[in-house]
Amino acid sequence: YLMSNHLEKIRENLTTFIKTNIPGFEIKGKESSTFMKLVGKLMFFNRRFMTAYVTTFYPKVYVPKLPWKYKNDLPAIATLAHEWVHLHDRKRMGLVFNFLYIAPQCFFPLGFLGFYNPWLFLLFLFMLPLPSPGRAWAEIRGYRMTIAVYYWLSGQKVDLKWIVDQFVSSNYYFMWPFRGWLMKKFNKEFEKIKKGELSVELQIVHDIIKRK
Question: What's the confidence (pLDDT) of residue 71?
């Protein structure tokens, strides 16, 4: 692991980069956010949403509480880089990103139109924990960054089982329950990272980490 002062500098550089590229970026505490408290009520399927998960709602990043971890905390750097991927995707895609992330569950309220057309009651089925290709795509990109940052800062491979568990469990509402496919996907991404075959987003963060 790198020295704590080096990690602190990396975190500062990464934070400065995000502030420069994401207008309005700010890290806020969930415990003081009425909006996040409301979202937390809706996230009935993830009881640790308010206390253990970092949530991005463009252009803010909400952490369980402030101050957020220690400046020399490697997981904090990995999480910040992960959330930057979401901010970056939201900035370039606009509200399309939001739609992809919450689909298909976002369609279930239309089931109330079943009072006018009985067939529309079927839309209530979207409230079920159905796979979400859009949300899975976004989180694959985010967790790919997590894997990369841990490797660059520690030289080690992060626990892929823990990452896969995020996809197949209620944490993200069972967004992609295909454990075998996910393990192959993330192992493949890890091998590409080791070889230096990096996406634009990975390259940016890699350069920040390796900056003298």
Answer: 59
Of 103-107, 118-122, 145-149, which range is least confident? 118-122
Q: What are phi and psi of 192, to 5 degrees?
A: -65, -40
Q: Which residues pair with 63 in a beta bridge?
A: 29
d(CA 30, CA 183): 31
Phi and psi at residue 112, to the nearest 5°: -65, -20
Helix H or strand E segment including 28: strand 26-29
How far apart (Å, rounded) are the C-alpha atoms in residues 28 and 63?
Answer: 6
Residue type at 88 in one-letter notation: H
Write down the pTM of the prediction: 0.92
Can you list the alpha helix ranges (DSSP code H) found in the chain?
4-21, 34-42, 49-52, 74-93, 95-102, 133-154, 160-168, 179-195, 200-210
Whole-Å CA distances, 179 to 24, 175, 191: 37, 11, 18
Asked whether 101 and 140 are in contact (CB, 8 A), the reply is no
β-bridge mates for residue 56, sequence order: 61
Of 186, 139, 194, give the one whose Cα is nearest residue 166. Answer: 139
Structure tokens at 190: 């890890």
Report the distance separating Cα 160 and Cα 182, nearest Å. Answer: 9
Rounded (10°) CA dihedral 121, 127, 131, 133: 80
Residue 183: CA count within 13 A, CB half-sphere: 7
